[in-house]
Amino acid sequence: MQNRFKNTRFSLMIMLTTITIWFAADCAVFGLKEVGVEVGKGFGAQAQAQIIPSIPEIPAFPDIQSNGNTYHVDKDIGNDDNACTNIASPCETIQAGLNKMSAGDTLIISPGATPYVGEWDIVFTGDSSSWTTIKGEDGQTVEISLIDSGDAGSHGEFSVGETSRYIYIKNLVIEAGSAGWREIYIHDDVENVVFEDVEFDGNDINIYGFIIGETDISPGVTNIYLKNVMVHNTGQYGIIFRKPVTTVVLENVTVHTVPIKDAANDCIAGRSNQGDTYVLKDFYLKNVTVYDCGEQGLDLGVAEGITYIDGLTAYNCNYGAIKLWGNTVWIMNSLFYDNADIGHIEVKLMETAPHHDAAKIYLLHNTFGGGATTKRAVYTQKCSNVNTAIATDWWIYNNIFFSEHPSQESFFMLMPSSDHDVIEEGNNYYFGVSDHRAIGWRDMGVDGCSWGPYTESYTVSYMTDGTWNAGGVYAQFGNGEGNIARYIGDGNGLTNPGFVNLGNDDYYFLSGSFAVDAGIDVGITHDILGNPRDGKPDIGAYEYIPTDTAPPTLSNPSPTGTLSTNTTQTTISLTTNETATCRYSTTPNTAYASMTNTFSTTGGTTHSQIITGLSDGNSYNYYVRCIDEAGNPNTDDFNISFSIASSPSPITYNILNFAQLIIDWLATAVSTADLNNDGVVNTRDLGIMMSSWEE
Q1: What is the pTM for the complete model shown?
Q2: How far is 182 from 196, CA to CA, in rounded Å?
Q3: Is the N end or the C end of the chain the one with fewer CB atoms within 10 Å?
Q4: Tell me: the pLDDT tens digits for 312-356?
Q5: In terms of C-beta distances under 8 Å and separation of at least 24 residues, what long-range contacts does 33-38 make, across chains too?
Q6: Cα separation of 635 and 591, whole Å?
Q7: Is the Cβ–Cβ distance between 378 and 344 less than 8 Å?
Q8: Could you give the C-alpha distances from 607 to 187, 558, 578, 589, 601, in angstroms and in order?
């Protein structure tokens, strides 16, 4: 079900377009407008009915214009002494091509028999009408292997150097080479850089994939876009954004296999090496996959603006899928499963300055799946000298919280009631594996770290003394509007919320799932796959799309009625409303699978078969059934019926019809005069007529 990238090459030329996005310099300012949906009954004494703000729009993809000269590189036939402006006389090396370029030019690299080897520092200062483009030849896979120059301390980088503006990198496979310090490096004081259709392979030894921004240096990096990018087999970080980086957009990005090598090993991180400080402003993810991460899938510190996550798939991360420390966070249409230790999402205020609360968090249409090592779906905490609120406002709607952990809640939150203003939630599906572990809101202890009792301010079924009633069957609806809460031992025979195949991590829905059509409209028009959310939306990341369960419709039987005498064969035919394979039988009520006669022309929407051995005066019935491509057979017969006309009876002649006898004999076109059926009317036929004479 999931599109899992394996540790092999993938076709970089396939455009996995969904929503094309880019950025504006002031894109942090979004107008929040009402969508006219009143949701939730709230939480605690401070709760009130809320209107969910409109979802921010991620910026549009840029109009890439490279209006300068075009240069060519081909390591197999090139020569660096060439002008390199003609594909027939290219440069041999990438560096020679770069040396001939100016801002706004394009360098096209042809694939080589072996990878291009070296390191490159790209420094061009263009503008929005003159992007500098470095790309592999369209439709080809161009491999580059990074090595250092031999100088002490050299990392061997494919880098975008300081002061670069409007750089477009496309159609490349970049390998780390044979040492541990090889990366794609976007230096400081850089603006507007796009990587599209690019793969980085760390070869299991490299420390980093992408490094974006330098630590504690200003001005930082502004407007970074990674689209159709894959990063894998790196040792510490797949992608790391260092301080300060403003406006980042990732679309169709996959980062995986980042094993434990050093102290930190996240697939995607936004943090400074000088400590857990905030380094990002306005961070957008669309259709991003992270898995097999040594620690977090995403470790994001967004100091200002928003964190926007739409369509994230995160699994097999050793220390959780996401650690959030930021401001306004949107997480929508995302799938989490088999993430170990702390759980899927950790909202934790770090002890190092600066301290920013995750002031507004929107969890909308997500599926928090199972995994025996996943402790919690959502976990919040503040500790030690951190005295500000963890989160002031939460909106939690249309999510599935499913736990397979034997001793943890499917949803868990440490939430001191005095620290938040509003928790709005409803139409969520809480599903636990034990009789008291579907959901838990728990008070913090005095020091803000230890766990107090379960709060009684929120009730899914009923609680007596601050703990779940272990013997009770949870009600389908709790305080939240339209909530569904279940556990496996509730007597309903449910082993999961209605997923297609939990063993294969297929979290799409079966038709009978309680999550189907159980959501509330919060303004999200698509699901994790881009399918529309029509009508009343489903709970979770996927919108259930009914599969084809109807057999084909059969029509236009032929032939019908009575066929002429002497017809010994004919073609029976019919049409179907969809592609199908048709069979026939001469015995009614025969199941499709038991029919042994298949139409000779079938498999489309028009079906035909030649029938032989017909004779005059007989009727014929053929019972047809078809099956469509989805495997739905007809269960009723479709009848093709016809008959063959009988031969005419002999005519007896007498004095009264003698004249007709002569006329029939002379009228050779009259078939009834060919009484011996030899194809001609002659005296032999006249003799037969006379032999039928009666007095």
Answers
A1: 0.70
A2: 20
A3: C
A4: 998 888 888 887 766 788 999 999 988 877 667 776 543 333 444
A5: 35/521, 35/522, 35/523, 37/520, 37/521, 37/522, 37/523
A6: 7
A7: yes
A8: 65, 10, 12, 20, 5
